[in-house]
Amino acid sequence: MARQSNRRPSKKRSAKSNQMAGRLPRNAPPIEVTISHIGGRGDGIAKALYTHNYSEAEHDVFVPASLPGERLLVQPLSLTSQGIKARIIELYTPSPDRHSPRCDAFPACGGCRFQHWDETEISSWKSALVANFLDRAKIKAGTIRPLYSSPLKSRRRASFHLKCVAGGAIVGFREHMGQHIVSPDGCAVLHPNLLALQDALQDFASAHLPAGFAADAHANLLDRSTGNADDSNICLYIEPISGAQPWSPDMLAKLGDWAASIRLARLSVTDHGSPMTLFAPEIPVVEFGKIGVSPPPGAFLQATRDGEAMLQNAIAEIAGSARQIVDLFAGCGTLSLPMLDNITNLLAVEQSEDALAALKFGVDAAGIGGRVKTASRNLFDAPLMPDELEGFDMAILDPPRSGAAAQCQMLAQSGIATIAMVSCNPASFARDAAILTESGFQLEWVQVIDQFSFSNHLELIGAFRR
After folding, report:
1. Edge to edge, what strands does the sheet with 71-79 contain?
2. Which end of the chain has fewer CB atoms at under 10 Å, N or C?
3. How far apart are CA 418 and CA 86, in angstroms?
């Protein structure tokens, strides 16, 4: 009898298995389709009859880089319960809204989905996406404000993938529907300093890292460091992918020298499961209002400075005269700290103890730590209960994509009268908004903010009052 293995499949093997699921033969016959609309993930969607395993049925067909009204010949790639994924072979009838891509790496690079689409149409699609989710949830928003878009080349946060092979290294983003890494040349989205970092990291990895090494490199462009204003102000955090060989002393020494040579604000790496800082001549700082915070390695920041400012201004508008505020999923204090001049009492709740420590250090250094308390809490499993919310007149929520259903249930039962909810997912936002409106809140207005040019992602904020 064969011995049954108890080992779990590696993440790499699982990802490859998922990628292969439903794969169709390479010689699968092409099909002709007409795109009806753009789906939530950014693909053009059509319907077509397709025969598979001698059975004909109608399927949704998902085609990247296509636009509504276009007639195409496409190659089917895979078939799942959701439909057929396909790629364009020939464009018979192009849309009048089709543009030449701004980047030569499109559509292979997975960072952008809409380089080929008129920017006005992208904005209209994103606004309509939010309105449709609210309609499905039967939520009436008083006003959906005009969408705000961040300018090009303003993205200050990026996660690069790095892989070393025998001929050198490549640093970039994973291709759409694949595992290859694409190095975008002249990216229209990233801040120029991050593009320069990508080139510098690729040069260093090609010269000094061994073949087979792979890692994720998370870069944040901060506001300043406490010392030299001429620094690049980039914090870089490198996480080797599971299975990569551990850091050798020689590799760490070379990384530190390289960080100094390109004037990074901070370089950290994962060492035995935890961040280890190799280089940080001064304290790197991101400014939230008058508060300077030094975020931990790999910390989540809003994608653009101007998008962050739009969110902060919206939060202040919603707050009005509120003075007792609870900031849920607070992170490093992005949304609440700019209002500290007008806040009597702030409770910042966040699962990451490192983020909370950075927040508290910043307010203490500014001499106003007495107004701020912090609590480390997993708000998905242990939301703040109504009695813990007593005394607060406003709540700020900025949850991950999965939303904050459990916490919204508790807010609905509390005495809090004003809620500002930020989301990067209109589906979970609508679900959570329904919990609040069913308990007596009104959604006064929604603001859509696009910090993710040419992608299917967006940010939105809603103002809720009883």
Report:
1. 31-34, 71-79, 84-93, 55-63, 44-52, 37-38
2. N
3. 46
The tally of domains found in the chain comes to 3
CATH number of residue 45's parent domain: 2.40.50.140
Measuring CA to CA, how many Å separate 376 from each of 191, 291, 330? Answer: 33, 21, 10
Give the mean model confidence (pLDDT) for residues 55-65: 95
Cβ atoms within 10 Å, residue 353: 11
The answer to whether the CB of 375 falls within 8 A of the CB of 359 is no
Question: Which strand ranges, in their side-by-side order, compose the sheet holding 274-279?
Answer: 181-182, 168-174, 157-165, 214-221, 234-240, 266-271, 274-279
In a shared domain, residues 328 and 242: no
Cα separation, 197 vs 14, in Å, equals: 31
Task: State the pairing for strand pair 442-450/143-149.
Answer: parallel
Quote the domain boundaries for residue 66: 24-98
* Sign, Cα dihedral of 103, 105, 111, 115: positive
Q: Residues of 208-238 as b/e, b for ≥16 C-beta within 10 angstroms?
A: bbeeebbbebbbbbbebbeeeeebbbbbbbb
pLDDT at 232: 67
What is the pLDDT, as a whole number, of residue 4? 32
Indicate if 428 and 279 belong to the same structural domain. Answer: no
- Looking at the structure, tell me whether residues 329 and 268 fall in a common domain: no
- Burial annotation 374-384 (CB, 10 A radius, 16+ → b, else e): beebebbeebb
Residues 90, 172: one domain?
A: no
Are 70 and 133 found together in one domain? no
Q: Report the pLDDT averaged over residues 286-298.
A: 95
The model's confidence at residue 22, banded by pLDDT at 50, 70 and 90, is confident
pLDDT of 301: 94
Q: Are 42 and 114 in contact (CB under 8 A)?
A: yes
Lookup: tokens for 7: 């080992």
The tokens 């992602």 sit on which residue?
457
Cis-peptide into 107, omega within 30 deg: yes
Please check whether residue 9 lies inside any domain of the structure: no
Name the amino acid, one letter, at 189.
Answer: V
